[in-house]
Amino acid sequence: MTTTETAQKLPLHDIHEQAGARFGPFAGWSMPITYPLGVMKEHLHVREKAGLFDISHMKLFAISGPGAVALIARACPFEPGEMTPSQARLTFFLDDKAGIRDDLIVTRLGDTRFMIVANAGNAAADEAHLRALAADFDAEIEPLERVFLALQGPQAEAALNRAGVATDGLYFMHGREPKPDWFVSRSGYTGEDGFEIGLPETDARALVARLTSDDDVEWIGLAARDSLRLEAGLCLHGQDISAETTPVEAALLWAVPKPVRETGDFVGAEALRAAIMAGAAQKRVGLKPEGRQPVRAGATLYAQDGSVAGRVTSGGFGPSAGHPVAMGYVNVDLARAGTQLAAEVRGTRVPVAVHALPFTPHRYLRG
Amino acid sequence: MTKTYFTDDHEWIRVEGDIATVGITDYAQEQLGDLVFVDLPEVGATLAKGDTAVVVESVKAASDVYAPADGEVTGVNDTLSAEPGLINTAATGDGWLWKMKLADAGQLDGLMDETAYNAMIG
């Protein structure tokens, strides 16, 4: 309880309280974990209609100035100069060992302006890291005070339009600033079509009032956000990826364009090239436990000969999949889909099969 | 004559003679959220007070349910294997977890009655 009380409150805390949210601590914030609908129905509602998430714990940084492209090319393993305005991509801050300090979404808003969305738990470290790098570049880093909302699900676009926010011409992994202090992108962390909207608190209160009066929209808490992203095969930093994992073993090398892998001068470049050359000993995979018993983060995985095969980094029940779902790291020779393993749960071995990710198909709207 | 006790850990124990039926309270199921799996003990298993008798798993987490007293498991609610959500909809009725033969009913002395329990959860 004390952690919840000392945790920082979201700007819209009162609205969540009125909506009957149950709160819990996450990354220093008191977050709505579930609403009266409950995690199962909240999860399914997102896949069927539209779910509204308050993700204001995440941090938006605007990067602007003549050196913005060069700064981001130094900070992240991709070529920001090749992005067209409004284009967004998943990328990372790597450390000198190519460990993932944080995973980020970077959106190009103009020739010399970008938006970075960072994870809550890493926001302070990300800002310090970026500022240290920025000393060598003519670029300004502006942490933004915004309410950050996500509206996710097949009805998200229609509901957002009904609430007065235009989405025309906006496709998956694109974003724009439709008016001062607003940032709207077609993105999310559920595997569904959807939007993320950063906006000032006053505007947010008005938008939330319109959205929550829409029959297709329900508030969705952090518990369902976690089960949705796990079914969608998406990583939670600090759990599935961390400074201890490189993009190679995390199976996220697709986010680093080939020419950048070869010649890019980003932080961690040498270590990443070495990691690619050496190949990973373990690889991140999906895991499907047999039966109904969930296999949770931290469980050890065993090969059929009884040797240790790896570990589970996220696990729970997938309401849309209809069975337990998990992901984790296994030795590369055991990473092929269908490989039979066992997870140790409370002293007993639960059969687990390596499974392709995602568990539920992505339904992004691409241009 | 039946008597119902409540523990600090949000379990209820309904005692008839030397047989106790154990479940979790409505407050507990509400805190846990939608349950998706219940790990039940074997009939005939011997439990000591404080042992983990059952593990209930929600979408997000696993929680232990402790034996409130020493005894032997005489029955388990098998319906929960297919329908763990019964605990959410009927925590104090059809969502019971296990029955046990109490070795010493006196171990339950000092547990709360319903009024005291309701006062505790506020």
From TrEMBL, chain A:
GO biological process terms held by the UniProt record: glycine catabolic process; methylation
Keywords, sorted A to Z: Aminotransferase, Methyltransferase, Transferase
GO cellular-component term (any): glycine cleavage complex
Family membership noted in the UniProt record: Belongs to the GcvT family.
Protein name stated in the entry: aminomethyltransferase
Example GO molecular function: methyltransferase activity
EC number(s) from the headed UniProt entry: 2.1.2.10
Coiled-coil ranges (or none): none
Superkingdom per UniProt: Bacteria
InterPro entries listed in its UniProt record: GcvT, GcvT/YgfZ/DmdA, GcvT/YgfZ_C, GcvT_C, GCVT_N, TrmE/GcvT-like
Automatic annotation (TrEMBL), chain B:
GO CC terms in record: cytosol; glycine cleavage complex
Domain Lipoyl-binding: 19-101
SUPFAM superfamilies associated with the record: Single hybrid motif
Cofactor binding: number and manner: Binds 1 lipoyl cofactor covalently.
Keyword Cell inner membrane: no
Domain of life: Bacteria
Gene Ontology biological process terms from the UniProt entry: glycine decarboxylation via glycine cleavage system; protein lipoylation
Cofactor: (R)-lipoate
InterPro entries: 2-oxoA_DH_lipoyl-BS (IPR003016), Biotin_lipoyl (IPR000089), GCV_H (IPR002930), GCV_H/Fam206 (IPR033753), GCV_H_sub (IPR017453), Single_hybrid_motif (IPR011053)
Keywords: Lipoyl
PTM sites of type N6-lipoyllysine: K60
Presence of the UniProt keyword Cell division in the record: no
Family the entry assigns: Belongs to the GcvH family.
Function: The glycine cleavage system catalyzes the degradation of glycine. The H protein shuttles the methylamine group of glycine from the P protein to the T protein.
Subunit structure: The glycine cleavage system is composed of four proteins: P, T, L and H.
Name the UniProt record assigns to this protein: Glycine cleavage system H protein
Organism: Nitratireductor arenosus
